[in-house]
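Researcher: Quick one. two chains, 667 residues in total.
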Amino acid sequence: MSLLQIKNLSVEFGSEKNPFRAVEGLDLSVDQGEIVGIVGESGSGKSVTMMAMMGLLEGQGRIVADELTFDGKNLLTISARERRKIVGKDIAMIFQDPMTSLNPSYTVGYQIMEVLKVHQGLRGAELKARALELMELVEIPAAKTRLEAYPHQLSGGMSQRVMIAVALACNPKLLIADEPTTALDVTIQAQIMDLLVNLQKERNMALLMITHDLAVIAEVAHRVAVMYAGQVAEEGTVPQLFRHPVHPYTQALLSSIPEHSKGARRLVTLPGIVPGQYDRPSGCLLSPRCPYVQERCRNERPGITAHEHGAVRCFYPLFEKKEAP
Amino acid sequence: MFFFILRRLGVLIPTFFGITLITFSLIRMIPGDPIEVMMGERSLDPALHAAAMKRLGLDQPLYIQYFDYISNLFQGNLGASLKTQQSVWSEFTTLFPATLELALCALVFATVCGLLAGVVAAIKRGSIFDHGVMGISLTGFSMPIFWWGLILIMLFSVQLGWTPVSGRLDLAFDVQPQTGFMLIDAWRAEMADPEYNAGAFKDAVMHLILPAIVLGTIPLAVIARMTRSSMLEVLREDYVRTARAKGLSPARVIFIHTLRNALIPVLTVIGLQVGTLMGGAVLTETIFSWPGIGKWLIDAIGRRDYPVVQNGILIVATLVIVTNFIVDILYGIANPRIRHAK
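Model:
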């Protein structure tokens, strides 16, 4: 059984009459020790999915799903109190902007020790020793003095390391990294990615990596889900999906990477933008932008269908590679 | 931290001189002089008037009078009241506890209710409670103190008869002023003579309630609104999301992670309210015949008692400055980013 199993998850915002579906019919599973990537443009529902799962939407979004289980526990029906015993302990999350994700009024040490106190009941010297151990685990130099430092005294890379230390404090089974390197310098990005991947291997935890950086996914992930406008457009193993993308959107996404454009003068782009609340097409959500669009695509919304190497949400998947007209 | 305090102290000196200059000139701009006011409607022999002015040193050019005033100040001499011949300092120290007691109770009332209302309004944003609190606080903020005081007296003292109309204590009690704080003095008197002074403490409380509410209304409104907006701002911060993602209880998220940061601007606002309280005390004390420095200063202005007005206001202003100074330091303690600033 998968560690995390999501089936047909939808998240709606706004009024009952005029709802906006930020996530629609999303299926996702993550096994123990697996690295799964979620890619998509801004506003494609990547973060909202994770926030919904962790119960961080604070009653703003309405969450509907056929199944939402973590480690055998049904996250849809458990009480808020029960959920808090899982969140921060078995599922931990790190965020995009480490500089603002740490509370400026408390020392780094306090913020690490807080999780240990709340979830593991550690006290006194044991607590301090464990915090120091975590600081060293995430390779923070001069860890002992840094325990007393305030977040504003740390660089972005250091702050993200502290966030990772907080996340790993209770040995989570699943770590969700929501664009963990977007706000960092390129050199620091590589260090943080290495750190995350090493820690993942060492502890055999599952890592769910949310990003819009395809290169990162290609390098580290085992499986990947491509999201578009709140839906999973295509899902598959990394080598398969990167070599033979079958969804037109995935194909467009991959060909928009400069390295892939192979001598073409202009970078391939998909005209238009992700549909928002008021311009959602009645058919396939990609239909207004899709170069292969057919009449059926405009009127009917495709479901997700499994194939040999993964799953795709398209009536006319590109099993034989075609060039965009 | 040492340099932080030193830097703040440096700013105080020009402020201090500014106050002396303003009070000195303002009181002299009001028509009439102490002698004229003392004599009232009766005609005054110009020669006698000139002699009296000379005796008080008021015949000198203004810059010399100001210089004398400042040099006296530096020698720690605050002068004596023209009316009672008592030193300004001793009059002040006798009356100040009454004002302090009133202002402290008003501030405690305003802070406790304001923080509570602001926090709950922020958490239940958009609810009826939120709209109610914000509407009431806007009303409270716009309410003229003298009108609000009279309305409360009409309702609670005259119509319902729940509280006394004015003063600090019923005359029937035998309470010796020891600390100057009526609550403490009445409590001690009641302990010392439980039979004769039975109910003195309760009576002191009943006398204090209405003036404290009247004086605390504007600060309460300001604190509630500030707390609400500050809380709402902080609740949107990434680190509050982090706190939730850590699986912390809602109480911990609100009080440890949100309120602590939201309090920083509120603290400044509370500090600034000390000025409002002192200003409000003048009106409140007049309405409730509360024998404090507000009433003392109003009377002094009425009879052009130059030394009392100049130095009384100077002392009050210094108090406000010192409180704001302390708030600045507290601010530094609450916000590590300021403490570490070079």
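Chain A has a mean pLDDT of 87.
Researcher: Thanks, that's what I needed.
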